[in-house]
Amino acid sequence: MFGPEGPSLRELAVQALSSVEHGYDLLAPKFDRTPFRTPGAVLDAVAGALAPAGPFGDGLDLCCGTGAGTELLTGLCHRSVTGVDFSAGMLEVARRRVRPAGGPGVAWVRGDARALPFTAAFDLVVSFGAFGHFLPGELPGLFRQVRSVLRPGGRFAFPVFAPPRPARAAFWTLLGFDAAMRVRNALWRPPFVMYYRTFRLGEVLGGLRDAGFGVELYPLPEFGWRADGSPRARLVAARRLTPRPAA
To answer: What's the rounded Cα separation, in Å, for the pair 26 and 29?
Structure first.
């Protein structure tokens, strides 16, 4: 699961017993050599799906980590790109590794996604692999925050994958991981919020609509199709709606 350049078992254990913020500060130098980094195939598929709607002016990578999504935005946005994350360690790695030659300027901001330090300054917000760090009750507020930093008509986009079926080993792996995290958080403080099974598409779509988005789903055919004909992966593209003026 982890190569020789990745974190050791001891390092992972120390991270798991830390807060989310401090845990990622510790993991940051080796994060890109773990399975937790968003694979390049996912980034490429999302970039391809978003390209027809662009080019965009200003982009934001929400919970940017080491900057994989930020780098993607430099190919979609022509004016500016910003990465925001609450881990200083992850941002430091991102600053070193994302240095586009030409193209839009890139800025890095330390901040909490639940209280974004921006006005309505972006045309596109993306996020990759971060939603497991938010409890279900936090998602409505998160979606409202994203809407508040988008210009009217701006998009909030992220990939979602169909959950594995019980007959597959991945189903039980994720179930076991979430159960272990719940036990850990019941016995140890500070909590480390990372759950893979709490981000349910139907609830997410309802939450986005309640927050003032119009939502469209696009299949990502690069990842194939399930036996029932549904895509294994989709791009959620939520557009900020402009409220109708009062009659």
So the answer is: 7
Residue 231's closest CA among 180, 163, 184?
Answer: 163
220 found inside a domain: yes
Domain holding 225, by residue range, is: 38-240
b/e per residue 183-212 (b: at least 16 CB within 10 A): eeeeeeeeebebbeebbeeeebbebbeebb
List helix spans (H) across the chain: 9-16, 20-27, 40-50, 68-73, 88-97, 139-149, 169-187, 201-210
Q: What is the CATH number of the domain that holds 49?
A: 3.40.50.150
In a domain? residue 4 = no
Instruction: Compute the distance between CA of residue 35 and CA of residue 22 in angstroms, rounded to an integer.
Output: 19
**Residue 6 included in any domain:** no
How many independent structural domains does the chain possess? 1
pTM more than 0.85: yes
Would you say residue 31 lies in a domain?
no
Q: What is the Cα–Cα distance from 217 to 234, expressed in whole angstroms?
A: 6
pLDDT tens digit string along 69-96? 999 999 999 999 999 999 999 999 999 9
